[in-house]
Amino acid sequence: MPETSFRSGLFARIEGLPIIVVFALILGLFMYTAPEVFLAPQIYTTLLSTAPPLILLGVGLTFIIGAGEIDLSFPSVIAFSGYVFAVLFKEYQLGWIAVLGSLASGLLVGVVNGLLIARVGIPSFIATLGTQFFWSGMATVLSGGRSYALRGAEDSSVWQLLVGNFGDPNAIAWQDQVSIQALWTALIVVLLWFILNRHRFGEHILFIGDSNDVARVVGINVEREKIRLFTLMGGLAAIAAMMLTLENKNFFGNQGQGYLLTAIAAVLIGGTSIFGGRATIVGTVFGCFIIWILEAGLVASGLTGAWVRTVQGLIFLIAIVFYLLVEEPGRRVELMRRLGLRREAGRSFAAGRTAGPPRRAGPRQS
Amino acid sequence: MNETQSDGDFTHIVRMEGVQKFFGAVHALRNINLAIGRNEIVGLIGDNGAGKSTLIKVLTGVMPPSAGRIFVRDRPIDLSRHSVGMAHAMSIETVYQDRSLGEKQPLWRNFFVGRQITDRLGFIRVKEQKRIAEEILLNTIGFRGVGIGVDSTVKQLSGGERQGIAIGRAMHFNSDLIILDEPTVALAVKEVRKVLEFVRRIKESGRACIYIEHNLAHVHEVADRLLVIDRGEIVADIDPREMSVAALTEYLIDLQQHR
């Protein structure tokens, strides 16, 4: 009913609104501290060309974390699928077949993860920690530790269609620098938004994240959906790997390493629940923007690069604590009690959380 | 939706023959034989760990039995392919104590999850689902003016309301056999009355029900027949009209002491 849902407020109606506001505030701050950078268009065209890999990884992880799982192996897919692409593209001159080969390698890593987690039953944290070592080791062994420079790649249709610019490649006006990978990424993000929020698969993922038991009881094939989930993540990581390799026109063995923390942080800053069951694609995209813009903004504001990770880590922790307290009223009360602010109320509420159905949790909003 | 199946001529909605279940060395179900009539309320009682939940899980396809045969509407079912989806398709629906609903998900998703109304590509018809969910909420369950809508999450509901949602879902999907797993645990007296009223409505609507309950008074009140399960075995088949709650309680205590 429109009347009832209307009253539940603007924040509930627009997906990811809190994080959009935070992003706008940070952006405003940087426009103030470094106007020459943030009031010029170039920073935004750079964003469009370099943020896509992070966004693709973040959106994939939104599904993973929404399902109550974790994937630590995607940095190794960036390395392994990047290697597969580089070697097929450069050594064998295979063009589009290199793209398919790279995508297949990412899907393969994902399927293996999915089988280990769903069929063998290893917790995803451990399984993907293992596969992370295995595939990044594999990439190093196969490449012999070498990097592959893809000189002249910009003449290929692969380069032009995947990471080319909309404008004249030789022009320097900012309009000509808008990268095509931003378009592909946007299309993938929109498609995945519909998958998560409107497709059977997305609904299954959220119910699995809510509770594996409930998911089984309502007839979801939990194992099959988890295999699909990790396969999707592997595929997205492979696309990110290709974009990164082509954009840099270079492959090197540890090119995925910087993404582990940043991609997970982007998802959690965006508001996807660390407990699973609730996930937001819009939040993740703005989480990625925040992670990215902190890097650019802190340096442009005159701080050394060493500060970037520190501030990113800090914002990450603040976001986690914030969402934890909003989402888990029991924990909030518990924290208050520990801080000595609400002595008496704490215990009964915290106990109520574990007891299950009988309690009437949270206020009725609608 | 399964009219052709449910209209068929049969005596028992469900029958189990020699069903066994092992968890490693643990013998959880021992040679279970039971039959549930098509319009019968059967109470299943027994101590914690007696095997009630395992029995239900085997019956509804959550896990396969180690041995034995299961018949639905007098026809044997292929246990290697038995699943929750199959049970749903055969109009068997389970309402678990606290595992039937996704806590953080809105009610409209909870009604349809596992059997969504989708287009050919698997995209959910949200408007249609919400419209039907609204109907179930108002007409089948009778949630009026209590501030609950189809967009409310399960988290916001009380224990009795949760049972109502799960039960309403079972009603909507025209289940011939509804299995209730301790639906009145930790509910206030008023909410217990509602649940028992619903169990009677299952009977009136011509369906069958297996009602698992700890509280003997509750189950004694509504059941046509009581099955006592102990250490994985069915040890008694009792007509509640011939045994009072007090006598039943004594019998069960006696049972514990003699084993």
Textual characterization of the structure:
The complex is a heterodimer of chains A (366) and B (259). Chain A has a domain at 52-285. Chain A is built from 19 helices and 2 strands. Helices cover 71% and strands 1% of the residues of chain A. Chain A has 366 residues and is an all-alpha fold. Chain A has helices at 2-6, 10-13, 17-33, 35-38, 42-50, 52-66, 74-91, 96-120, 124-143, 157-163, 180-198, 200-210, 212-217, 222-248, 259-270, 281-300, 306-327, 329-338, 346-355, and strands spanning 148-149, 250-251. Chain A is globular and about 60 Å long. Chain A has a two-stranded antiparallel sheet. The termini of chain A are close together. Chain B has 259 residues and is an alpha/beta fold. Chain B has a domain at 3-100 and 184-257: 3-Layer(aba) Sandwich (Rossmann fold). Helix content of chain B is 34%, strand content 24%. Chain B has 9 helices and 10 strands. Chain B has a 6-stranded mixed sheet with strand order 6-7-8-3-9-10, sandwiched between helices. Chain B has a 4-stranded antiparallel sheet with strand order 2-1-4-5, with helices on one face. In chain B, helix 6 packs parallel to helix 7. In chain B, 46% of the residues are buried. Classes of the chains: A mainly alpha (366), B alpha/beta (259). The interface between A and B is large, with 38 and 42 residues.
Q: Give me the Rg of chain A, rounded.
A: 22 Å
Mean of pLDDT of chain A: 84
CATH superfamily of the domain at 3-100 and 184-257 in chain B: P-loop containing nucleotide triphosphate hydrolases
Largest protein-protein interface: A-B, 38 and 42 residues
Instruction: Choose one word for the global shape of chain B.
Output: globular
Q: Largest beta sheet of chain B, briefly?
A: 6 strands, mixed
Distance between the termini of chain A: 10 Å
Structural class, judged by helices and strands of chain B?
A: alpha/beta
Strand order of the largest sheet of chain A: 1-2
Q: What is the CA-based Rg of chain B, rounded?
A: 19 Å
The DSSP helix count of chain A reads 19
Oligomeric state, counting identical vs distinct chains: heterodimer
Tell me the strand order in the biggest sheet of chain B.
Answer: 6-7-8-3-9-10
Please work out how many helical segments of chain B DSSP would assign. Answer: 9
* Helix content, binned percent of chain B: 25-40%
CATH topology of the domain at 3-100 and 184-257 in chain B: Rossmann fold
Unreliable stretches of chain B: 1-6
Q: What share of residues are in beta strands of chain A?
A: under 5%
What is the tally of beta strands of chain B? Answer: 10
> What is the highest CATH level, the class of the domain at 3-100 and 184-257 in chain B?
Alpha Beta
